[in-house]
Amino acid sequence: MLPLELPTIQNWSCHNCGGCCRQHAIAVTPEERRRIEMQGWTADPAIGHRPLFVSSGPPWNRGCRLAHQSDGACVFLDEQGLCRIHAKFGEAAKPLACRVYPYAFHPAGRKITLSLRFSCPSVVHNQGRPVITQKPDLRELEELVVPAGAEKMRAPPVCPGQQLDWPDLLVIVQHLEAILALGDLPVAARLLRALAVVDLLGQSKFEKIRGPRLREFLEIITLATATEVPADLLTIHEAGPAGRVQFRLLAAQYARKDTFAECDAGWRRRWSLFRAAVQFAKGRGNVPPLQPGFVPVPFAALEQPFGPRSAEADEMLARYLRVKVQGLHFCGRAFYDVPLVEGFQSLALIFPVVLWIARWLAAGTGRTALAVEDVAQALAIADHHHGYSPAFGQASFRSRVCSLGKMGDIERLIAWYDR
Ligand code: SF4
Fold it and tell me: Is the C-alpha dihedral spanning 40, 46, 50, 51 positive or negative?
Protein backbone atom coordinates (compact mmCIF):
# COMPACT_ATOMS: atom_id res chain seq x y z
CA MET A 1 0.00 0.00 0.00
CA LEU A 2 1.10 3.54 -0.75
CA PRO A 3 1.40 6.21 1.98
CA LEU A 4 -1.92 7.91 2.58
CA GLU A 5 -2.00 11.69 2.86
CA LEU A 6 -4.97 13.00 4.82
CA PRO A 7 -6.44 16.51 4.99
CA THR A 8 -5.41 18.19 8.23
CA ILE A 9 -8.26 20.73 8.36
CA GLN A 10 -11.24 18.44 8.00
CA ASN A 11 -13.36 16.51 10.50
CA TRP A 12 -15.95 13.93 9.72
CA SER A 13 -18.08 11.25 11.36
CA CYS A 14 -21.39 9.86 10.11
CA HIS A 15 -24.37 11.44 11.91
CA ASN A 16 -26.90 9.04 10.39
CA CYS A 17 -28.83 11.72 8.48
CA GLY A 18 -29.46 9.14 5.74
CA GLY A 19 -28.99 11.84 3.09
CA CYS A 20 -26.44 9.84 1.09
CA CYS A 21 -28.83 6.86 1.06
CA ARG A 22 -31.52 9.06 -0.51
CA GLN A 23 -29.61 10.86 -3.21
CA HIS A 24 -27.09 8.41 -4.65
CA ALA A 25 -27.48 5.44 -6.94
CA ILE A 26 -25.42 2.64 -5.38
CA ALA A 27 -23.79 0.43 -8.00
CA VAL A 28 -23.07 -3.10 -6.82
CA THR A 29 -20.68 -5.66 -8.24
CA PRO A 30 -21.87 -9.22 -9.02
CA GLU A 31 -20.01 -10.37 -5.88
CA GLU A 32 -21.76 -7.76 -3.70
CA ARG A 33 -25.10 -8.73 -5.19
CA ARG A 34 -24.53 -12.39 -4.37
CA ARG A 35 -23.47 -11.48 -0.83
CA ILE A 36 -26.59 -9.36 -0.21
CA GLU A 37 -28.85 -12.04 -1.72
CA MET A 38 -27.34 -14.54 0.74
CA GLN A 39 -28.36 -12.26 3.63
CA GLY A 40 -31.93 -13.52 3.26
CA TRP A 41 -33.82 -10.25 2.86
CA THR A 42 -36.74 -11.79 0.99
CA ALA A 43 -37.85 -13.36 4.27
CA ASP A 44 -37.62 -10.01 6.08
CA PRO A 45 -41.12 -8.49 6.56
CA ALA A 46 -39.66 -4.95 6.46
CA ILE A 47 -38.47 -5.52 2.88
CA GLY A 48 -41.28 -7.83 1.78
CA HIS A 49 -41.34 -8.66 -1.90
CA ARG A 50 -39.72 -5.45 -3.05
CA PRO A 51 -36.92 -5.98 -5.57
CA LEU A 52 -33.47 -5.41 -4.06
CA PHE A 53 -31.67 -4.60 -7.32
CA VAL A 54 -32.38 -2.94 -10.64
CA SER A 55 -30.38 -2.88 -13.88
CA SER A 56 -28.54 0.32 -14.63
CA GLY A 57 -26.33 1.82 -17.31
CA PRO A 58 -26.55 1.79 -21.11
CA PRO A 59 -27.42 -1.46 -22.98
CA TRP A 60 -23.77 -1.97 -24.02
CA ASN A 61 -22.53 -1.66 -20.44
CA ARG A 62 -25.30 -3.01 -18.26
CA GLY A 63 -24.69 -2.96 -14.52
CA CYS A 64 -26.70 -3.34 -11.37
CA ARG A 65 -27.57 -0.96 -8.54
CA LEU A 66 -29.58 -1.11 -5.33
CA ALA A 67 -33.31 -0.55 -5.82
CA HIS A 68 -34.99 2.45 -4.23
CA GLN A 69 -38.25 3.08 -2.41
CA SER A 70 -41.00 5.30 -3.81
CA ASP A 71 -39.56 8.37 -2.02
CA GLY A 72 -36.12 7.78 -3.58
CA ALA A 73 -34.51 6.22 -0.49
CA CYS A 74 -32.42 3.08 -0.81
CA VAL A 75 -34.44 -0.11 -0.41
CA PHE A 76 -32.43 -0.88 2.76
CA LEU A 77 -32.97 2.47 4.50
CA ASP A 78 -35.33 2.13 7.48
CA GLU A 79 -37.83 4.61 8.94
CA GLN A 80 -35.20 5.95 11.39
CA GLY A 81 -32.83 6.74 8.51
CA LEU A 82 -30.54 3.80 9.32
CA CYS A 83 -29.15 1.09 7.06
CA ARG A 84 -30.72 -2.33 7.61
CA ILE A 85 -27.66 -4.16 6.27
CA HIS A 86 -25.41 -2.27 8.67
CA ALA A 87 -27.75 -2.88 11.62
CA LYS A 88 -28.06 -6.59 10.99
CA PHE A 89 -24.70 -7.65 9.57
CA GLY A 90 -22.28 -4.83 10.39
CA GLU A 91 -20.57 -2.07 8.42
CA ALA A 92 -18.38 -4.39 6.36
CA ALA A 93 -21.44 -6.16 4.90
CA LYS A 94 -22.57 -3.04 2.99
CA PRO A 95 -21.62 -2.37 -0.65
CA LEU A 96 -18.18 -0.80 -0.93
CA ALA A 97 -19.62 2.46 -2.36
CA CYS A 98 -21.58 2.97 0.90
CA ARG A 99 -18.55 2.21 3.05
CA VAL A 100 -16.29 4.64 1.24
CA TYR A 101 -18.66 7.65 1.05
CA PRO A 102 -17.91 10.54 1.65
CA TYR A 103 -14.21 9.76 1.17
CA ALA A 104 -12.45 9.84 -2.18
CA PHE A 105 -8.98 8.30 -2.68
CA HIS A 106 -6.78 9.66 -5.46
CA PRO A 107 -3.44 8.28 -6.70
CA ALA A 108 -0.71 10.93 -6.63
CA GLY A 109 2.49 9.19 -7.74
CA ARG A 110 4.10 7.44 -4.81
CA LYS A 111 1.25 8.31 -2.44
CA ILE A 112 -2.53 8.45 -2.23
CA THR A 113 -4.32 11.67 -1.35
CA LEU A 114 -7.69 11.75 0.32
CA SER A 115 -10.51 14.18 -0.30
CA LEU A 116 -14.12 14.33 0.89
CA ARG A 117 -17.45 14.89 -0.79
CA PHE A 118 -19.21 17.98 0.49
CA SER A 119 -22.59 16.61 -0.53
CA CYS A 120 -22.56 15.18 3.02
CA PRO A 121 -23.82 17.81 5.55
CA SER A 122 -21.42 16.56 8.24
CA VAL A 123 -18.49 17.24 5.91
CA VAL A 124 -19.81 20.71 5.09
CA HIS A 125 -20.22 21.53 8.79
CA ASN A 126 -16.88 19.93 9.72
CA GLN A 127 -18.58 17.71 12.30
CA GLY A 128 -17.04 14.62 13.86
CA ARG A 129 -13.55 13.28 14.48
CA PRO A 130 -10.54 14.87 12.78
CA VAL A 131 -9.93 12.87 9.59
CA ILE A 132 -6.25 12.77 10.48
CA THR A 133 -7.09 10.54 13.49
CA GLN A 134 -8.94 7.98 11.37
CA LYS A 135 -5.90 6.61 9.58
CA PRO A 136 -6.27 2.93 10.56
CA ASP A 137 -9.84 2.73 9.18
CA LEU A 138 -8.89 4.70 6.10
CA ARG A 139 -5.94 2.40 5.41
CA GLU A 140 -8.42 -0.51 5.35
CA LEU A 141 -10.57 1.32 2.81
CA GLU A 142 -7.50 2.29 0.80
CA GLU A 143 -6.63 -1.36 0.42
CA LEU A 144 -10.12 -2.06 -0.92
CA VAL A 145 -10.48 0.83 -3.37
CA VAL A 146 -7.03 1.74 -4.69
CA PRO A 147 -6.12 -0.48 -7.64
CA ALA A 148 -2.78 -2.28 -7.82
CA GLY A 149 -0.19 -0.31 -9.80
CA ALA A 150 -1.75 3.05 -8.85
CA GLU A 151 1.76 4.51 -8.53
CA LYS A 152 2.24 3.98 -12.28
CA MET A 153 -0.64 6.27 -13.24
CA ARG A 154 0.54 9.38 -15.03
CA ALA A 155 0.15 12.80 -13.51
CA PRO A 156 -2.46 14.98 -15.24
CA PRO A 157 -0.89 17.53 -17.61
CA VAL A 158 -0.69 21.14 -16.39
CA CYS A 159 -2.45 22.12 -19.61
CA PRO A 160 -2.68 20.33 -22.98
CA GLY A 161 0.85 19.35 -24.14
CA GLN A 162 2.55 20.38 -20.88
CA GLN A 163 3.31 17.24 -18.90
CA LEU A 164 5.22 17.20 -15.61
CA ASP A 165 6.12 14.24 -13.42
CA TRP A 166 4.22 13.74 -10.18
CA PRO A 167 6.76 15.44 -7.85
CA ASP A 168 6.69 18.65 -9.90
CA LEU A 169 2.93 18.59 -10.35
CA LEU A 170 2.51 18.18 -6.59
CA VAL A 171 4.75 21.22 -6.01
CA ILE A 172 2.22 23.27 -8.02
CA VAL A 173 -0.70 21.76 -6.11
CA GLN A 174 0.95 22.55 -2.74
CA HIS A 175 1.67 26.07 -3.90
CA LEU A 176 -1.98 26.66 -4.85
CA GLU A 177 -3.11 25.23 -1.54
CA ALA A 178 -0.74 27.55 0.32
CA ILE A 179 -2.29 30.56 -1.45
CA LEU A 180 -5.78 29.36 -0.52
CA ALA A 181 -4.60 29.06 3.10
CA LEU A 182 -3.46 32.72 3.39
CA GLY A 183 -5.42 33.54 6.54
CA ASP A 184 -4.98 37.32 6.36
CA LEU A 185 -6.93 37.61 3.08
CA PRO A 186 -10.66 37.14 2.44
CA VAL A 187 -11.45 33.84 0.75
CA ALA A 188 -12.46 35.45 -2.58
CA ALA A 189 -9.15 37.36 -2.75
CA ARG A 190 -7.18 34.15 -2.06
CA LEU A 191 -9.07 32.36 -4.80
CA LEU A 192 -8.47 35.20 -7.25
CA ARG A 193 -4.74 35.12 -6.46
CA ALA A 194 -4.56 31.38 -7.01
CA LEU A 195 -6.52 31.74 -10.23
CA ALA A 196 -4.14 34.42 -11.51
CA VAL A 197 -1.21 32.01 -10.92
CA VAL A 198 -3.11 29.22 -12.68
CA ASP A 199 -3.84 31.49 -15.67
CA LEU A 200 -0.10 32.12 -16.06
CA LEU A 201 0.65 28.41 -15.68
CA GLY A 202 -1.75 27.83 -18.57
CA GLN A 203 0.40 30.06 -20.79
CA SER A 204 3.77 28.58 -19.74
CA LYS A 205 6.06 25.98 -21.32
CA PHE A 206 7.62 23.61 -18.82
CA GLU A 207 10.45 21.92 -20.77
CA LYS A 208 13.08 23.70 -18.70
CA ILE A 209 11.04 24.66 -15.66
CA ARG A 210 11.35 21.69 -13.35
CA GLY A 211 12.61 20.87 -9.85
CA PRO A 212 14.09 23.89 -7.98
CA ARG A 213 13.46 26.09 -11.04
CA LEU A 214 9.77 25.35 -10.84
CA ARG A 215 9.64 26.51 -7.20
CA GLU A 216 11.46 29.70 -8.17
CA PHE A 217 9.10 30.23 -11.10
CA LEU A 218 6.05 29.79 -8.87
CA GLU A 219 7.41 32.34 -6.37
CA ILE A 220 8.02 34.84 -9.16
CA ILE A 221 4.62 34.53 -10.79
CA THR A 222 2.89 34.59 -7.41
CA LEU A 223 4.58 37.88 -6.57
CA ALA A 224 3.85 39.26 -10.02
CA THR A 225 0.16 38.32 -9.91
CA ALA A 226 -0.45 39.42 -6.30
CA THR A 227 -0.71 43.04 -7.45
CA GLU A 228 -3.22 42.08 -10.14
CA VAL A 229 -5.91 41.34 -7.59
CA PRO A 230 -7.25 44.70 -6.35
CA ALA A 231 -7.58 45.22 -2.61
CA ASP A 232 -11.19 46.24 -3.19
CA LEU A 233 -12.92 43.50 -5.19
CA LEU A 234 -15.87 45.82 -5.82
CA THR A 235 -13.72 47.57 -8.43
CA ILE A 236 -13.81 44.44 -10.60
CA HIS A 237 -16.39 44.77 -13.39
CA GLU A 238 -19.38 42.51 -13.85
CA ALA A 239 -19.03 39.68 -16.40
CA GLY A 240 -20.18 40.55 -19.93
CA PRO A 241 -23.59 39.44 -21.34
CA ALA A 242 -22.15 36.30 -23.00
CA GLY A 243 -20.37 35.31 -19.79
CA ARG A 244 -23.51 35.84 -17.75
CA VAL A 245 -25.52 33.53 -20.02
CA GLN A 246 -22.81 30.85 -19.81
CA PHE A 247 -22.70 31.23 -16.04
CA ARG A 248 -26.46 30.89 -15.57
CA LEU A 249 -26.49 27.71 -17.66
CA LEU A 250 -23.58 26.36 -15.63
CA ALA A 251 -25.26 27.28 -12.33
CA ALA A 252 -28.44 25.58 -13.55
CA GLN A 253 -26.49 22.37 -14.12
CA TYR A 254 -25.20 22.48 -10.56
CA ALA A 255 -28.58 23.39 -9.05
CA ARG A 256 -30.42 20.59 -10.81
CA LYS A 257 -31.39 17.43 -8.99
CA ASP A 258 -32.62 14.38 -10.83
CA THR A 259 -34.60 12.18 -8.50
CA PHE A 260 -35.30 8.59 -9.52
CA ALA A 261 -38.97 9.47 -10.10
CA GLU A 262 -37.95 12.31 -12.42
CA CYS A 263 -35.54 10.08 -14.35
CA ASP A 264 -38.45 7.72 -14.95
CA ALA A 265 -40.52 10.60 -16.36
CA GLY A 266 -38.69 10.27 -19.72
CA TRP A 267 -39.54 12.83 -22.41
CA ARG A 268 -41.71 14.95 -20.05
CA ARG A 269 -38.65 15.52 -17.84
CA ARG A 270 -36.47 16.30 -20.87
CA TRP A 271 -39.03 18.78 -22.17
CA SER A 272 -39.27 20.60 -18.80
CA LEU A 273 -35.45 20.73 -18.60
CA PHE A 274 -35.28 22.16 -22.11
CA ARG A 275 -37.79 24.89 -21.18
CA ALA A 276 -35.84 25.64 -18.01
CA ALA A 277 -32.59 25.90 -20.03
CA VAL A 278 -34.24 28.46 -22.36
CA GLN A 279 -35.34 30.50 -19.34
CA PHE A 280 -31.85 30.32 -17.83
CA ALA A 281 -30.33 31.48 -21.11
CA LYS A 282 -32.72 34.46 -21.24
CA GLY A 283 -32.26 35.28 -17.55
CA ARG A 284 -35.57 37.13 -17.36
CA GLY A 285 -38.62 36.51 -15.20
CA ASN A 286 -38.47 33.92 -12.46
CA VAL A 287 -35.78 31.29 -11.97
CA PRO A 288 -37.45 27.94 -12.72
CA PRO A 289 -37.24 25.66 -9.67
CA LEU A 290 -34.86 22.82 -10.49
CA GLN A 291 -35.41 20.74 -7.41
CA PRO A 292 -37.85 20.45 -4.51
CA GLY A 293 -37.46 23.26 -2.00
CA PHE A 294 -36.44 25.87 -4.60
CA VAL A 295 -38.98 28.67 -4.77
CA PRO A 296 -39.31 30.67 -8.03
CA VAL A 297 -37.65 34.07 -7.49
CA PRO A 298 -36.80 36.76 -10.07
CA PHE A 299 -33.42 36.28 -11.77
CA ALA A 300 -32.79 39.98 -11.08
CA ALA A 301 -33.13 39.43 -7.30
CA LEU A 302 -30.04 37.19 -7.35
CA GLU A 303 -27.88 39.90 -8.90
CA GLN A 304 -28.24 42.27 -5.94
CA PRO A 305 -25.49 42.40 -3.29
CA PHE A 306 -26.27 40.05 -0.42
CA GLY A 307 -24.00 41.81 2.04
CA PRO A 308 -20.97 40.50 3.92
CA ARG A 309 -20.98 36.83 4.91
CA SER A 310 -20.24 35.43 8.33
CA ALA A 311 -16.75 34.17 9.19
CA GLU A 312 -18.29 30.70 9.54
CA ALA A 313 -19.61 30.72 5.96
CA ASP A 314 -16.24 31.87 4.63
CA GLU A 315 -14.39 29.21 6.63
CA MET A 316 -16.64 26.61 4.97
CA LEU A 317 -15.88 27.92 1.48
CA ALA A 318 -12.14 28.15 2.13
CA ARG A 319 -12.02 24.67 3.67
CA TYR A 320 -13.92 23.28 0.68
CA LEU A 321 -11.40 24.71 -1.78
CA ARG A 322 -8.40 23.58 0.28
CA VAL A 323 -9.65 20.03 0.82
CA LYS A 324 -10.39 19.66 -2.91
CA VAL A 325 -6.97 20.97 -3.89
CA GLN A 326 -5.04 19.01 -1.23
CA GLY A 327 -6.91 15.85 -2.19
CA LEU A 328 -6.39 16.38 -5.96
CA HIS A 329 -10.16 16.37 -6.32
CA PHE A 330 -10.19 18.83 -9.22
CA CYS A 331 -8.19 17.37 -12.10
CA GLY A 332 -6.89 14.13 -13.59
CA ARG A 333 -8.55 10.84 -12.66
CA ALA A 334 -10.64 12.47 -9.95
CA PHE A 335 -12.16 14.99 -12.33
CA TYR A 336 -12.93 13.69 -15.82
CA ASP A 337 -9.22 13.46 -16.72
CA VAL A 338 -8.95 17.21 -17.29
CA PRO A 339 -5.59 19.05 -17.02
CA LEU A 340 -4.72 20.97 -13.84
CA VAL A 341 -5.45 24.44 -15.25
CA GLU A 342 -8.91 23.56 -16.57
CA GLY A 343 -9.72 21.62 -13.39
CA PHE A 344 -8.77 24.55 -11.20
CA GLN A 345 -10.93 26.88 -13.29
CA SER A 346 -13.88 24.53 -12.79
CA LEU A 347 -13.22 24.44 -9.06
CA ALA A 348 -12.95 28.24 -8.90
CA LEU A 349 -16.33 28.53 -10.64
CA ILE A 350 -17.91 26.56 -7.80
CA PHE A 351 -17.43 29.68 -5.64
CA PRO A 352 -19.84 31.95 -7.58
CA VAL A 353 -22.13 28.98 -8.29
CA VAL A 354 -22.48 28.22 -4.57
CA LEU A 355 -23.11 31.87 -3.72
CA TRP A 356 -25.68 32.12 -6.54
CA ILE A 357 -27.53 29.03 -5.27
CA ALA A 358 -27.26 30.34 -1.67
CA ARG A 359 -28.84 33.64 -2.81
CA TRP A 360 -31.65 31.68 -4.42
CA LEU A 361 -32.28 29.81 -1.16
CA ALA A 362 -32.23 33.05 0.84
CA ALA A 363 -34.39 34.99 -1.64
CA GLY A 364 -36.90 32.11 -1.59
CA THR A 365 -37.69 32.99 2.02
CA GLY A 366 -37.65 36.74 1.42
CA ARG A 367 -34.14 37.42 2.78
CA THR A 368 -31.52 39.67 1.18
CA ALA A 369 -28.56 38.47 3.29
CA LEU A 370 -27.02 35.01 3.38
CA ALA A 371 -27.21 32.79 6.45
CA VAL A 372 -24.54 30.14 7.10
CA GLU A 373 -27.09 27.45 6.35
CA ASP A 374 -27.78 28.91 2.87
CA VAL A 375 -24.09 28.56 2.02
CA ALA A 376 -23.88 25.10 3.61
CA GLN A 377 -26.89 23.84 1.69
CA ALA A 378 -25.71 25.39 -1.57
CA LEU A 379 -22.27 23.81 -1.15
CA ALA A 380 -23.84 20.38 -0.61
CA ILE A 381 -26.08 20.83 -3.68
CA ALA A 382 -23.22 21.93 -5.95
CA ASP A 383 -20.66 19.40 -4.78
CA HIS A 384 -23.12 16.55 -5.33
CA HIS A 385 -22.34 16.87 -9.06
CA HIS A 386 -18.76 18.13 -9.03
CA GLY A 387 -16.58 15.35 -10.39
CA TYR A 388 -19.40 12.78 -10.35
CA SER A 389 -22.21 13.68 -12.77
CA PRO A 390 -21.21 12.42 -16.24
CA ALA A 391 -22.62 15.59 -17.88
CA PHE A 392 -19.87 17.64 -16.21
CA GLY A 393 -17.19 15.74 -18.10
CA GLN A 394 -18.84 16.29 -21.48
CA ALA A 395 -17.59 18.67 -24.16
CA SER A 396 -20.45 21.18 -23.67
CA PHE A 397 -19.67 21.68 -19.96
CA ARG A 398 -15.91 21.77 -20.51
CA SER A 399 -16.15 24.30 -23.34
CA ARG A 400 -18.37 26.50 -21.11
CA VAL A 401 -15.65 26.55 -18.44
CA CYS A 402 -12.91 27.21 -21.03
CA SER A 403 -14.81 30.05 -22.70
CA LEU A 404 -15.49 31.71 -19.31
CA GLY A 405 -11.75 31.36 -18.60
CA LYS A 406 -10.74 32.86 -21.95
CA MET A 407 -13.10 35.82 -21.54
CA GLY A 408 -11.64 36.51 -18.08
CA ASP A 409 -15.13 36.10 -16.64
CA ILE A 410 -14.31 33.57 -13.92
CA GLU A 411 -12.57 36.31 -11.91
CA ARG A 412 -15.45 38.74 -12.56
CA LEU A 413 -18.05 36.19 -11.46
CA ILE A 414 -16.15 35.44 -8.25
CA ALA A 415 -15.99 39.14 -7.37
CA TRP A 416 -19.61 39.80 -8.42
CA TYR A 417 -21.21 37.10 -6.29
CA ASP A 418 -18.82 37.79 -3.40
CA ARG A 419 -20.63 41.14 -2.82
S1 SF4 B 1 -27.07 -0.10 1.54
FE2 SF4 B 1 -27.31 0.96 3.49
S3 SF4 B 1 -25.67 2.51 3.53
FE4 SF4 B 1 -25.91 1.83 1.37
S5 SF4 B 1 -27.35 3.30 0.46
FE6 SF4 B 1 -28.58 1.54 1.21
S7 SF4 B 1 -29.22 2.15 3.29
FE8 SF4 B 1 -27.54 3.49 2.70
Answer: negative
ω before 102 within 30° of 0 (cis)? yes
Best mutation site among 76, 84, 119 for ligand 1 pocket (most ligand atoms within 8 Å of CB): 76
Ordered DSSP codes for 178-236: HHHT-TTS-HHHHHHHHHHHHHHHTT---SS--HHHHHHHHHHHHHHHHTTS-SSGGGS
Q: Is the CB of 97 under 6 A from ligand 1?
A: no
Cβ atoms of residues 283 and 245 within 8 Å = yes
Tens of pLDDT, residue by residue over 176-225, are 999 999 988 999 999 999 999 999 999 999 988 999 999 999 999 999 98
Q: 307-341: per-residue pLDDT in tens?
A: 899 999 999 999 999 999 999 999 999 999 999 99
Could you give the CA distance from residue 217 to residue 208 in angstroms, rounded to a whole number? 11
Of 308, 286, 314, 310, the residue nearest 299 (C-alpha):
286
pTM flag (> 0.85): yes
Q: What number does the ligand 1 atom closest to the CA of 76 have?
A: 7
Q: Determine the angle formed by the axes of helices 372-385 and 340-363, rounding to 10 degrees.
A: 140
Phi, psi of 281, rounded to the nearest 5 degrees: -65, -40
For residue 254, report the distance from its CA to the centre of ligand 1, in Å: 24
